[in-house]
Structures are given as structure tokens and as C-alpha cells.
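Sharing in case it's useful to others searching the archive later.

Someone asked me privately for the predicted structure of PstS family phosphate ABC transporter substrate-binding protein, so I'm posting the question and my answer publicly. Question first, with the sequence:
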Amino acid sequence: MLKNVKVLGLVIFILLFAMCNQKSKNDSNNETILKGTIEIAVDETVKPIVDDQVAVFEGTYYDAKVNTKAKSEAEVINDLLNVKTKVAITARDLTQAEKDKFIKLKINPRVTPFAIDAIAFISNKSNKDTLIALKTVVDFMKGIPNPGIKGLVFDNPNSSTVRYMKDLAKVKDIPADGVFSFKTNDEVIKFVSENDGMIGVVGVNWLSQPVPEMQDLVHNINVLSVKGVKDNNYYSPTQNDIAEGKYPLARELYIINCQGYTGLGMGFASFIAGDIGQRIVLKSGLMPVKTPGRKLQIRNQITNDKENN
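And my answer, the predicted C-alpha cells:
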């Protein structure tokens, strides 16, 4: 009797396993590069441009649904490494150590650059000085005080902006005094707009595409021009200065696809790296990695409207 129960239990287990495995296969079979549902982890500092891409992508391909979750850079990378998400958008490429972890998991990440973003320094509108030397900020990150800076304000202690500035300053930890952090770029903009002497560190996309409720606050801040560590000139985080490689705080944006099969992640990556996606980047105020082509209409005859009138 006991033997029969064990056999029956084993049969039920095998059937349940087969059903789950079949469900997983059906899910991937139902998903194509232009159909299905996918969840993407997004670096919060670049969320506006991603929202634009998703809106146009879903409006073009009605059977595709892209759900985004904005998180700090550290959380986005951890979700990828722990297979909590299979597609992510970040402000940096994977490190070799991270790529090695994926190799152990038998996953080959597809990394596609699609835009050049920038980190911007902002100050209160009452601050008449709209210039800042990058060295001043780097020294402040090292704990060296400066009379022109009451404090540095970041979006999140685990964000890509904090990581970027720590790398520049070559410090492991941010100073305990004079450095503040919130949760989002909007909170940084709001705080700086209300507090004189603070220098905010935000993704420039939040300034070029503010949500309606943030537009008045953006008008109450200055976007500072920055002098590089090895430069005597000041440059702004504009498309022109970014395109010419003059602005010292530019950075590439990437979509990282770890699906491991031909799914919606590949379709979305191809879309944002393609002509339409690159036009969206250009319109957003960021710099596309590929300049979208222009179609010219050639006419064999030129009509002189003045003469015809």
C-alpha cells in the first residue's frame, strides 16, 4: 500500500513538472519580437526617455506591452544578476565580473547602446554664478569643503549619478557631511529650487523633458556650465556640446537583454536603436548614437510661385 502511494506521488510530481515546463515553453512561444508582455528595469535617472520610447513602441505594435520599473542603478544591476528581470536600461555597460556571472548562468547578454546622456549640475535661480569647475565638485566629493557649495544633492545613494561622481573622485564612499540624497531626480530639483547654495546632481533628461507638475520648478533653477578637469572652457549639457564631445559629464545609455531567446526584449532593443527610436532620442534633447537619416524630395522642375501669381 505504502509503495503504491509513493508511486502515485511520483507520478503526480512528474505530471506537475511537465505542466509547469510546458507553460514556460508556451509563454516563450507566445512571445515574439513584436508581441507579448515584458518587464524592464530602468535606471531612474533616464526614465523620461524610456517612457517616450515605450509610448511610441506600444502605439506602433498594439500586441506589445512593455512595463517599466524605475530603480536605482545598483538595484537594476542586482535584478539582472539575480534573474529578477531579463531586460534593463542602464547608464553603463556591464563590468567584466558581471559578464562572467552571466557566463556561469549560461546567459549571453546583448548590450545595445542607444543614446548619449549627461549628468547636469543645477543651482537655485538666486545664484547668479552659472559656472562651476568640475574639480570643485570632485574635491567636495573627497571631503574638501568649498565656500561656494553648501551641499551636493543626489537622487539616491545607489544611483548612477552617485556612482559616476565617486568614480571621478576615486572615492569609495561619499562624505558624511555636506552630501544629501533623496529618492528621485524630481525631489532633487524641488529641493534645489527651494534652497540657495545647494548643487543638485541630476540626469539632464529630467530637465529637458520635465513632467507638467515640475515645469515651474525647473524654471526656478540654473543649469550650470561645467569646466572639465583638463580644460579651461565651460560647456553646457546641450545636444551640441555633447555631440562635439566637449561636455565633460556625458555618458552612454544601454539596453541590456538577457532573455536568451528571440523575444520582445530584442524587438524593443532593435526599435530604440533603429531610425524611429533614434529620432525620439534626438527630439528628447539627448544625443542619439546614430544620426537619423533625412529624406530629401528631388524635383525635376522648380516652380516660381511669384511668377505664377
